[in-house]
Amino acid sequence: MDDVAEIPVDPARAVVHEQGWQSWSPSTGYALGEQPHRPNAEKRRIGCYRPETAPGADVFWGEGLLAVDPGDGGPVTVVAAVEPTGTVPSIRARAVDGRVVVAADGPVRVVTDAGAGGVPGALARWADEVAGGLGLPAPRPAPTIWCSWYQYFTKVTEADVDRNLGLLDTLELPVDVVQVDDGYQAEIGDWLIPSGRFSDTPGLFKRIADRGRRAGIWTAPFLAGARSRMAADHPDWLVRDTDGTPVSAGNNWDQDLYALDTTHPGVRDYLRSVFSTFAGWGIDFHKIDFVYAAAIPGVRHEDVTGIEAYRSGVRLIREAIGAQAYLLGCGAPQLPSIGLVDAMRVSPDIAPSHEPESGDVSQPSQRGAALNGVSRAFQHGRFWVNDPDCVVARPGVERREEWAAHVAEFGGLRGSSDGLDQLDDWGLKTTRRLLTDPVPRHFVAS
Ligand code: 9PG
After folding, report:
1. CA-based end-to-end distance of the chain
2. Which one, of 19, 7, 13, 15, lies nearest residue 126 by Cα?
3. Is 182 in the pocket of ligand 1 (CB under 6 A)?
4. Going by DSSP bridges, is the β-strand pair 343-345/326-329 parallel, antiparallel, or unpaired?
5. Is any atom of ligand 1 closer than 6 Å to the C-beta of 150?
6. CA torsion, points 367, 368, 373, 374, in degrees to nearest 10?
7. CB neighbours of 417 closer than 8 A, spacing ≥ 6?
8. Can you tell me which atom of ligand 1 is nearest the CA of 47?
9. Which residues are catalytic?
10. For residues 14 and 2, what is the distance between their CA atoms, to the nearest angstrom?
């Protein structure tokens, strides 16, 4: 790493802001004496942080973006990737005797920002410049969603979706898209083979459309689960180490995960056929998840960087689903996704509990979800529509009033993810309000 800036600070008041790699990576500001959030297990480091870096908690570390507020009233320093959609250098900051010393392992620019609004203001101005430089159009208005995940998780059944589809009518909820999440498919990678709990998936999506709603689906298109038929049938589709071992893309669903090589013609044909099949079923909303896998370092069919492989994979999906379909990224490298998606999950998952079970804020919890939703507000309306994660408003959700207030202020995409028969009066009223209220076009730093 080379030093790129040395900033005199008030050590008692200075703040260093870290940008994490992907949707679930903790992103926030820290006082100099604070320990930044780091993974507490290897599978989380790979699956929720940047797989190729492992900074300790004794340094601050941003992936492609880091900002320093000196705390003495002086300007904010933003250190950022020169080409955030091409090369995302790691940026390290250390406190040394009344100074913050910043170093990077690739091309960055150092911007001194004396405008209003502190770090959020400076990041918003940086994002405006990036969006302007790339000529990004304003993001399209997002549809409202009902999502199966946060009530039913992987145990969702076709009957659960049908029941909620009916309740949307009975309750007259203004939901545009019914999005079936993880659980409809046989395995991670076997997207067109139904799980035992779904008997007629195309029929279900047709019923959604027949009721006047749009059909949405979840996939993890660049993952191959160790148990999948796809991994067994096509071992040549996986990203590998130089010694030929498939690269680990983490572990979830009680199995090892591998990354698909999006430059391999077989993978490209497969993804095209999966997403064209979905288009034929009338699906026009896609939550593509765990997409960090496509960018994982390793050996591919074509000699491209992980970020190039990732972008070409997402572009291929966009071509297959059509320009009109709505595309939501999740588990997605943030800066490399600029210009590719309509909306982006900017946080780890919401959960009924306020604290993450394992103590790692990249894991499901209200605290982790809110942390990122606030600090990534600057991205909303500039790079895409921010998805702060779904509204969960049923009784039993800890501090549900706080979560609803967070979504009201920072979302972006508005989705409900309760079993609609689980809502009490407050939950129903709040869900309706959050689905109806106008969404701020973009975040403005106060
Ligand atoms: C479906 C879910 C939902 C959810 C997504 C994603 O192992 N992990 O660290 C891990 C992180 C996030 C996660 C699952 C596992 O949730 O964010 O909305 O779609 O997948 O499986």
Report:
1. 35
2. 19
3. yes
4. parallel
5. no
6. 60
7. 146, 147, 148, 149, 150, 151, 390, 391, 392
8. 9
9. 289, 349
10. 22
pLDDT computed for residue 445 by the predictor: 62
Our mutation pick for probing the ligand 1 site, out of 21, 23, 24, 257, counting the most ligand atoms within 8 A of Cβ, is: 24
Instruction: Please tell me the predicted confidence (pLDDT) of residue 267.
Output: 99
Q: Is 181 in the pocket of ligand 1 (CB under 6 A)?
A: yes
CA angle 371, 405, 358 (to 5 degrees): 35
> Residue 151 in contact with residue 419, Cβ under 8 Å?
yes
**Low-confidence spans in the chain with pLDDT less than 50:** none
Residue from 180, 187, 181 nearest 204 by CA: 180
Beta bridge partners of 67: 17, 78
191: CA distance to ligand 1 center in Å?
Answer: 16
**For ligand 1, atom 11: residue with the closest CA:** 363
Nearest to 404 by CA among 377, 362, 370, 442: 370
* Ligand 1 binding pocket includes 418 (Cβ within 6 Å): no
Maximum CA pair distance of the chain?
Answer: 66
Alpha carbon distance 48, 193 (integer Å): 27
Cβ–Cβ < 8 Å for 387, 355: no
pLDDT at 446: 52
Pairing of strands 385-387, 343-345: parallel
Q: How far apart are CA 45 and CA 22, in angstroms?
A: 11
Buried b (16+ CB within 10 A) or exposed e, 24-46: bbbbbbbebeeebbbbeeeebbb
Write phi, then psi, for 111 (nearest 5 degrees): -110, 130
Residue 438 pLDDT = 85
Whole-model pTM: value is 0.98
Q: Which tokens in the block code for residue 251? A: 């572990």
